[in-house]
């Protein structure tokens, strides 16, 4: 994604926590997720949550819409795994 652009959509802060929701868009020009380059443009979003301690990031949680991204790049997505048989 050499032309990747990221826009911060929302920032929230409370106490020692800061959350940011972002949207990115770019062209898949190299291998990603074990798949060859597609040349397709994709848009995906995510949320990062930071915990600060002494003015530095002490913890980071990240969620990115990889399923949506893979679908846009042409990956076959299945409805889900088979249910677990508890018996």
Main features:
4-stranded antiparallel beta sheet, 1 helix, Nuclear Transport Factor 2, Chain: A, 87 residues
Report on this model:
- This protein is mainly β and 87 residues long.
- The protein has a single domain, classed as Roll (Nuclear Transport Factor 2, Chain: A).
- It is built from 1 helix and 4 strands.
- It has one helix at residues 66-72; strands spanning 5-14, 17-27, 41-53, 56-64.
- Strands 1-2-3-4 form a 4-stranded antiparallel sheet.
- A hairpin with a 2-residue loop joins strand 3 (41-53) and strand 4.
- The termini are far apart.
- The model has no long low-confidence stretch (mean pLDDT 93).
Task: Describe how the helices and strands are arranged.
Layout: E1 5-14, E2 17-27, E3 41-53, E4 56-64, H1 66-72
Antiparallel strand pairs: 1-2, 2-3, 3-4
> Would you identify the CATH architecture?
Roll
Question: Which word captures the global form?
Answer: flat
> What is the residue-mean pLDDT, rounded to a whole number?
93
Quickly give the structural class: mainly beta
Instruction: Give me the Rg, rounded.
Output: 17 Å
* CATH topology description: Nuclear Transport Factor 2, Chain: A
Concise structural overview:
The chain is mainly beta.
């Amino acid at each position: 994604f050499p032309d990747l652009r990221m826009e911060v959509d929302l920032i929230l802060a409370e106490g020692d926590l800061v959350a940011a929701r972002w949207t990115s868009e770019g062209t898949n020009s190299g291998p990603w997720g074990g798949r060859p380059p597609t040349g397709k443009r994709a848009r995906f979003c995510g949320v990062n949550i930071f915990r600060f301690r002494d003015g530095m990031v002490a913890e980071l949680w990240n969620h990115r819409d990889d399923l949506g991204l893979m679908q846009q790049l042409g990956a076959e997505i299945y409805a889900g795994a088979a249910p677990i048989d508890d018996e």
